[in-house]
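Chapter review: from sequence to fold.
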Amino acid sequence: ELRSSAFWRAVLAEFLGSLLYALLGLGASLRWAPGPPSVVGAALAFGLAQTTVVQALGHVSGGHVNPAITLAFLMASQLSLPRALGYLLAQV
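The C-alpha cell string follows.
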C-alpha cells in the first residue's frame, strides 16, 4: 500500500486539508474590526472551513482532517494501520 500513488495522494490531501482548515478557520476568526470578539463568527468560520475542505478533498482521502476521526476509523477497522499512520503524520 505504501508504494501506490493513491496512498500518497490521500496523505497529501490530508495534509492540505488540515493546513487549509487551520488557515481558513483561524484567518476568518481573527478580529479585523474593533469591538468584542464574536464567538458565533469564529464557530461559523471553522464550520464553513471544515465543510469546504471535506467537500473539496473528501473524495481523495475521505476528508478526515482531524486526527481523532482518523483514530476512530482505525479503531473501527475501517482504515489500515499504514494509511492511518500516514494520515496522522500528515494531519499533525
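Two observations follow directly from the output. DSSP finds four helices and no strands in the chain. Residues 5-28 form the longest helix (24 residues).
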